Structure formats: structure tokens, C-alpha cells
## 1
Amino acid sequence: MKKLFIAMVAVLALASCAGKKEAASKSIVIYYSQLNSTKAVAEQIANKLDIPIVAIQPVVPYDDDFNATIQRGQKEMNGELPEIKPLDVKLEDYDVIFLGYPIWFGTYATPMMTFLKNADLKGKKIVPFCTFGSGGLNTSVNDLKKALPESEILPGYGVRAARLDAIPTEVDYFLKSNGFLGGDYNPLPDFSAQAPASDEMKALFHAAVDSYGMIRAEAESVCERAIPGGKEYFFTAREAMGGTIQVYVVDPDNGDPVFTQVVR
Ligand SMILES: Cc1cc2nc3c(=O)[nH]c(=O)nc-3n(C[C@H](O)[C@H](O)[C@H](O)COP(=O)(O)O)c2cc1C
């Protein structure tokens, strides 16, 4: 009877761990969020992996007013970084750090810069995640690689603040497809070959980006793939100011097309 009980406990323990990979046991989420969008992603990751989560906090909080934060952020980018409160975390206890930040001026926000300047992240695996108005995942990841040459920067996840309802599904896919979380997922197909954008595709592009206001561009070429519940497009577009951008657009079966990320 006792043996049977021990066996049952062992099976239950295995079952409860089955969704989480071994890497999760030495992982932590460290994030900065001014307006809670990045916090929402951070909490989703920490909950799914059942790992600790710590917030970076500036000593002097940012003003709620957007323009005031822009002005202060710009000054900090060009001058002295903001002070942050000491973090109650022993970094040496962790080997994987999920590092979250809002995109400010195309890269990670200045409180995260302060953290990176002072933290010893040598030899750690860094998994970046961010939220943004239009994009900045790739540029911020490139900056992380430069700032942390002795860390391993893994593929990251980014989402527009306007699409926070997509977080649960996308974070689940991100964690599973990168091996942090066990369980089934359907890998997305590759995109088709890039082809010149038809008038219909140009109209779809406009429908997806025009309401954002800060993207003034014309679609030149596009490729596509099927995704659950719709189609995803990857446009190359010429900006009115000159230069090229790449834009991911999702066109749901039920609903209007939205852009999910601009890549510069
Ligand atoms: C100072 C500042 C600069 C910003 N710069 C960018 C930018 O360059 N690109 C962008 O897409 N969004 C930019 N944003 C928008 C934020 O990235 C976006 O609102 C983000 O989701 C905020 O995250 P949080 O709620 O975690 O603070 C900026 C916001 C602020 C306050």
C-alpha cells in the first residue's frame, strides 16, 4: 500500500512538471514597465513558467503625462541615466533571464539601461521581450547584443501596446516554440515567396497601418502565410520620407486587418 502511495505521488509530481521544462527552474523575469503593458507580458511569462518576477523601479517615478516622459526620456538618453532602486534578487542564482522593457526611441527604456550598466549578466542566457507603439524588437535586441557581449541573447518576443489581448496566445506560442514550456503547439508555416504588392494588397496594407498615424508608406512587395483564424502578411514598404520598412500584418477571418510590428 505504502509503495503504491509513493508511486502515485511520483506520477502526480511528474504530471505537474510536465508542462515546464527543466530550464524554467533557474529562470527569472526582470522587467521595467512605466504604463503596465510590459508588466502584462512579464506576468504572463512568470505565471506560465512559475518563476520569480522582479520589477525595476526608478527612484524618481516618471510623470503620467506622455509628453513629459518623452522629454525626460530624451534627456536621459543624451545625458545621465535615471537612478533605479536596488533589486531584491541574487542574479548568480539564475542562468536564464527574461528581460522585459518598453521601447523608447527605438530601443530599451532608460531604466533598463541603468540596470544593464550595473548588473553582472556575464554567461547568462537573456530572453528579451518588449512592448511598443509600432515596433523596436529587432533594434533593441541588436543593442542588447552590443551592451552584453558576454551574454547569450536568445530570440525575443514583442507586441504592440494596442494588442495586449493577443498576449496569452502569443506568449504561449513563444515559450513553447523556443523550448521554455512543454506541451503541444502547431508550428506556423513558412511565408510564401515575396511578390510585388497587388492593388488589393496595397489597400490591405493601408487598412492596417493608416489609423496609427505615424506610418506613411506604400506597400511594394508582400508574402503571406496561413495562421490560426486568418492570414499573416509581411510587407516591404517605401516610406514617404524615403527609406524602407517591413511590416507584419494580421488579417483575421472575422475582423479588420491590423499591423503587429514594424521592422526598421
Ligand atoms: C519616452 C517614450 C518613447 C517611446 N518611443 C517609442 C518608439 O520609439 N517606438 C515605439 O514603437 N513606441 C515607443 N513608445 C511607446 C511605448 O513603447 C509603448 O507605449 C509601450 O507599450 C509602453 O510600455 P509600458 O506600458 O510597459 O510602459 C515610447 C513611449 C515613451 C513613453
## 2
Amino acid sequence: MELEAWQLLVIPLFFGLGWIAARVDIRHVMQESRAVPRSYFKGLNYLLNEQPDQAIEAFLEVARLDPDTLELHFALGALFRRRGELDRAIRIHQSLVDRADLPQDQRMKALYGLGEDFFKAGLLDRAEEVFQRLEGGVHAVDALRKILEIQVLTKDWQLAIVTARRLEKLGYLSQNADTAHYYCELAATAMLRGEQEDARNFLKQALRENRRSARACILQGDLDAQAAALDAAIASWRRIEEINPAYLPIAAERLIQAHGRLGRTEQAVHLLQSYLEQRPSPDLLHLLFQTVAEHQGWEAARKLAADELRRNPSLRALDDYLQASNALQPESEDGKVESHLAQDLVHAQVSRVAYYLCGDCGFKARQFFWQCPACARWESLSPERVEHE
Ligand SMILES: [Zn+2]
């Protein structure tokens, strides 16, 4: 095929156009790179050399020279908060909030960041005030959750109830179980003040929020016991059998005492025995063991511990068993020192490893809390001590 002269000219023309396009592209890149402040590259260099403090200072310089780098401002703010440098985080977020040219969504984001800074700094009043300014915006639910967290921390239970309602109205998860605890807190305070009628009303509200609230039943029983209505108290505590039997170990001591005051300890023993048959519980066993030892003697107590040790072996059942065995051993018998030593060792081990354990964050507590002191979740602590290294 013969090429015509004009076709031969097209090839170098395409080459030429390609060369010009490449030059234009390179020039554009060069211009852009010159527009990026030198501190940015310095910061990158520090980052690559694992010198985060110097990198932060360099990026701060970029942010100062170029206020338009919004994402960099937000990243630095969050980073300072994470590092605990809260005054610097607050300064960055505050400067963003104060900027008149910021679009509304970015201002809201900065406000939320500022609220989180104040919250982490423990300035709860200021945090709450900032979160309240986010009402109605895209951060409304998150801000309301933070407000609720603050009200729970400061034990403003009445306000917490209102906030929980508002959260539910915004479509957030049902708050009934937590709200029942807020009412229980109010009831417990009223009981301490001797305001029994108020306490009774708060407990009614708690059960309306969560009819399976073991805590409300326990408090209801306590209130009845305070008024010397022991049968009513026993009935309240026994409601836990139906609604949430895992919490029976918390009610067991109250049941024993109330039955004892009515001269019906035998009934309490039968009741706790029936609980123990339904579910193993070293804490329940220990209470029952002590009651049986006191009212029926060490022989019956040893038999109880031995049976339970066979059915549900645990260090605590062994501790109880050894205690009864030692009590039954005659003073003169050889080996008494050794068997006491063994019991002391087991007892020390029980004290070391038996805890109420938070199923959520793993916090271990010597005493029972309805709200985990570490992660603030309600009812996340096991209702009886577990043996845990
Ligand atoms: Zn926890």
C-alpha cells in the first residue's frame, strides 16, 4: 500500500501533540507541588522517620499557613485529643467553630469535636452546653447520647429519663432497661431519705419501663422490709424466681434474714435448696451452708457442701466443705494442723480469684454493682462471683 504525502505528515504531528500534552501535565504538577507548603513535606518526612512529635509541629505549621486545609485541622484536633493534649485539641476545634466562612456541616463537626474535648477534659458543664447546640443537626443522636452519658455520670436521673425519651423519639435503641435503672436510683435515694411514698412510685415506674427488672423487685422488697411488711418483702424478692433467676444470689441473703425474723428459717433453707437444684451457684451455696451450719449443725452443712461439690465442683464449695470438716474434727486428732492449713490455702485462693466480672469490659469487682464502674454499662456485672484468674 502506498502512503500519500499528507499521511506521512500526520505521524510527527501526533508525536508533537503528545510531547506538548506531557509538558503541560508536568508543568501543572510542578505548579501544584510548589503550592503545597514545604512544612507539609517536612511533616511527611518526620512521619516516615517515626518522629511523630516533630511531624505534628510541621503539620501545625501547614495548618497555620493554609487555613483551608480543613481535614488536616480535624485530624490534628482528633489526634491531640487522643494523645491527651486537650488544651491544643480545644484550641483547634474552637478556632474552627469561630470561623465565619465555615460551611454549616463542618461547623457542626467542629462543635462535636469541641464537645468531645471538653468531655474528655472533665469539663462536663461546658461539654453538655456544646452538645446541646447540636440539636436538630446531623450529629443530634450522637450529641444526645453524650448528654445522657453526662447526666448519668452526674447522677441527674430525672434529666436522664427525659433525654432517654428524646433519644427513643429520634429512633435510637429502646432505652427502657436503662431508664428502669434511673428510676431505681431515684427510688434508692428516696428510701435513704425516708420518703417511702416517692420510692414506691419510682419503683412502679421502673417496673413499667422494664417489668423484668430484678433490681426494682429487690428494692420493692427492701421498701416492704423497711415498713416491717416481711411477707410482702419476701413475695417481692421471690418474683425474681420468675422474671430473672440469675439474680437470685443477690436476693438470697435478704430472703434468709426475713424468714429468720419471722422464725421461719427452715422455710428459707428449703427455698434456697430448691434454687440450688435449679442452677449451680457457689454464692448461693455459701449462704445456705452458713445458715445450715448455724441452724442444723456442721454435719448437715458438711453433707450439703459434699453433695454440691460432687454435682458442681468449685473452689468455694471445697472451701465450705473443708470448713465443715475441720469444725467436726476432734481437737486431739492428728493431722488437724494440716487440714486447717489446707483450708486456709483454699480460702486464700477463693479470695484471690472470686470476683463479680463485667461481661462487657472484663472489669473485676469485689462487690456487686448494678452499673459497671469501668464501662458504665448497666447489669453487665455477673450477678454472682465467678472464679477467674
Ligand atoms: Zn464493664
